Amino acid sequence: MAQRLSSAELVTRFIDERMSREIPAQQALRAETRKLPGSGMMSRPESDALLQMLIRLTGAKHVIEVGTFTGSGSLAMALALPEDGRIVACDVNAEWAAIGRKHWQQAGIAHKIDLRLAPASETIAALLKGDAAGTFDMAFIDADKTGYDAYYEGCLKLLRQGGLMVLDNMLWSGHVADPDMHDKDTNALRALNLKIKDDGRVDFCLLSADDGILLARKR
Question: Which of 9, 47, 126, 138 suits 18 as a labelling partner, its CA being 20 to 30 A distant?
Fold first, then answer.
């Protein structure tokens, strides 16, 4: 007898399978990424659809993505951007990026994605050294968790007033709420959550959707 799925598993399956509008290029990218050992790093359809909705609601044209992996989020956001919109996508793995490029091209949106293969901290610093401070409409952070605080500070400088920052994995499978969990990633994310709560530079909302998505609007 097959084991019955939990309510949470049923909800996840319903959202990802029954409530998705993903195009063939997105579906193909997911299928190829699932074959990789680190496929769990791929964002779910739920998260990608939220990113698209936020871009459309805010009218964003200029986006920075910290942590691209195989480009599921990049693809989703590029599809939602207007023709003159651009994403600066930051990652360090050329092999993963090559998978993304193929499907970006299939979807006809590769020209909207400016992939920077370098540590995100270096890319952010280079942008700030130029004339990019205060010019981005939206930032999406989904990379190494111990680096989140530095990415938050850098992206906050890049965002214009009223710009939106989206941080993924901010509940970290519930570990940030567990007082007995003290590994480096959990400690970093817990500390950043509490820092943002007291940060007068932003308005914020922490959602329990997916693995915890925090929205911070620059004042």
Answer: 138
